[in-house]
Amino acid sequence: MRTRNVLAAALSALCFSAAAKAEDMKADGLYVKADLGAAFVQDISQDLGVAGLGMTVGFDRGRMGAIGIGKYMSNSFRIEGEIGYMNADAGELTVSGAGGVRIPIDFSGELSTLSFTLAGYADLSDGPFRPYFGGGLGIARWETIVDTLAGVDLNEKEDGTDLTAFAEAGVAYHVSGNVAFTGSWRYQRVDTESHLDSHVVKAGIRYSF
Fold first, then answer.
1. Are 115 and 140 in contact (CB under 8 A)?
2. Apex CA 37: angle with CA 192 and CA 193, to 5°?
3. Which of 75, 123, 139, 206 could share a disulfide with 33, CB 3.0–4.6 Å?
């Protein structure tokens, strides 16, 4: 009987602690979010430094995903930390020269980035539909892989870590006091030597405690 009472007391204490923690998080204005979307990476151009030759790499539509945790500082402003991942396959490689000559070269590879950012957002209303805009700054770990070039297997990799920044605008639809669905557009740059720029269209869900 004593063991059963101890277990019941422990279970009650655990439930009370979890409820209290949830109330504390709600009082603190905390939320979590998850996003999925499509990434459109802009072409990367580079001067080859030989006889005026240049190289341009194009990319297919990519994929992105992100998770984050945020905090409402007021009814109209919040801050958010995010971990994001983006991946896109290389679609084409073109070498250009004098006179506008463009030579396509058989090429396959991919690009991926893993970013860690801190952002601030302004919510423009407090109704069910809440447009918002904001931006963030952080670091991104990027990696490029060249699988084949002109029919030759290379399997070469290059990577690095650079600053990244983004601007974003979107709208959140609050279906309840805790749950909101979001849709947004983002422009993001990774400050590599050639500047890695991408447009991202994404949808997500946000849960407030």
1. yes
2. 5
3. 206
What sign does the dihedral 104-108-115-80 (CA atoms) show? positive
Phi and psi (nearest 5°) for 6?
Answer: -65, -45
Spatial separation of the C-alpha atoms in residues 80 and 71, rounded to whole Å: 6
Give the Cα separation of 14 and 22 in Å (integer).
12
Cβ pair 76, 51 in contact under 8 A: no
Quick one: how far is CA 156 from the chain centroid?
Answer: 25
pTM as predicted: 0.81
Please state, as a whole number, how many other Cβ atoms lie within 10 Å of the Cβ of residue 133.
Answer: 13
Task: Give the end-to-end CA distance of the chain in Å, rounded to a whole number.
Answer: 37
Cβ–Cβ under 8 Å, residues 57 and 44: yes
Are residues 57 and 17 in contact, defined by beta-carbon separation less than 8 angstroms? no
- The neighbour count for residue 68, using CB atoms within 10 Å, is 20
188 exposed, middle or buried (CB, 10 Å; 0-12, 13-18, 19+)? buried
Which residues, including other chains, have CB under 8 Å from residue 49's CB and lie 6 or more apart? none
DSSP letter at 191? -
Q: What is the pLDDT of residue 7?
A: 40
pLDDT attached to residue 12: 55
How many residues in total does the chain contain?
Answer: 209
Count of C-beta atoms within a 10 Å radius of residue 103: 10
Residues of the chain with pLDDT under 70: 1-27, 99
